[in-house]
Amino acid sequence: MADTDDKKANGGKSDDNGYRSILKGTSIFGGVQVFQIMVNLLRGKFVAMFLGPDGMGVASMFTSASNTISRFASLGLNLAFVKEVASSKESDRQLATALHVAGLLIRLTALLGAIVCAAMSPWLSRWSFGSDAYAWQFVLLAVAVWFTVAGFGQSSLLQGLHKVKILSVTSLAGAVAGLVAGVPLYYFFGDKGIVPAMIVLGLTSYLFYSYGLRRATPRHNVRFRWSEHGPMVKRMLGTGMILLASSLINTTCTWLINIYIRMHGDIADVGLFNAANSITLQYAGVVFTAMALDYFPRLTAAASDNRRMWGIVNRQSEIVALIAAPLTILLVATAPLVIRLLLTERFLPVTELMRWLGLGILLKAVAYPLGYIAFAKDNRSLFFWLEAVVCNALYLGMSLVFYRLFGMMGLGYAAVAEQGACVILYMSVNRAAYGYSPDRKAVRETAIGILLCVSAFCVSLASDGALGYWLMACVFLISAARSFLTLKVRLRER
Length: 494
Hints:
The protein is mainly α. Helix content is 86%, strand content 0%.
């Protein structure tokens, strides 16, 4: 697609989807993600201080159980809510209907999660702790599950409305209030205070999201009628089940990769791979989560206007390349330091693997804006086959083959090859299905970002001494300065 001016590419809505709006949303949500990570680290610190290693283990078991039940109970509906609300904003009546139906589904899925948690409490206690001693705490955990599912549902509605400021403030307020109210429970009640603290966290988040949602939307009297609203319910559930299936397939592929590594290597290889993979995913999660929170609602709202939609995709691709490139170079350069800080020196052998995984994350960032196009276009079948089937098959197949051929480093090679293949796949399919092709700016920024990252990566392979770090620092400064100056120019555009 040839370059066009911003206003024309956006269908005359440059203020909504110009560079300034995109960068503002990404930076705000990125800042929120960083803050929430810091709050979670601080909560973990208090748990370690007041409860010790045993209490930390108990807290981890309850948290993982709550997260698993909440994910299944949500039925993948959160992103479906975002899509439905974002595409209904042009009509007040249609928006009111979407919010009402979504609110009903949120309450039902929250109740489903609570009932499942309470009903399975004896089994959850045995699976988690090997006895029935914690069964009553899992019954109590059902309350936390209800608030968690309902709170995330409310935040999805705010995301669909693209209420950036309200969503950011309520997210931060809920996290801080949950921390302040929960820490005394650890101090006074020990491990008996873990579940009550989770309830407090879920409750405060839910209350702040509910308050923000009431402020963001006018009240409309909508009465649910299956004959009228049934198709919307079926559409949301159908979309949600596809997303849930995609998530489950990805989780299963990761599990199979771990089993294969253990069978053809050893358990230490499994630990090393997951340690490196966990760090890179958390590092990239700040950017990806911020992008999803801001980008997807705007893309969905423009799904009926290809010209406007391609303008949004191209701008997002540019900004992603400008932000992701210096961050990837920083990860490549500081990998040994990051490993020492977050793990221990015993994990330093995964330094090179982590650098390869970092390159894979850069390519994933390039693919990310392209992967949402089919979903925003409501082509659920195409999205499922691309995201859930083909990309996961590439992930599983390449990981197994490359590990068999090259050992641990093969997992890094596989990450780069798989993400590169996904970029080509998304580009080809979107061009064939919708006629999309990136404009010159998006191609140029992506190519330069990849070139700079590959340069820093090659330096890391060639020299691990002081000269190598100086050269990587120079590449990082060049990339960061170029991104800063380019973004400054883009912010003046409409």
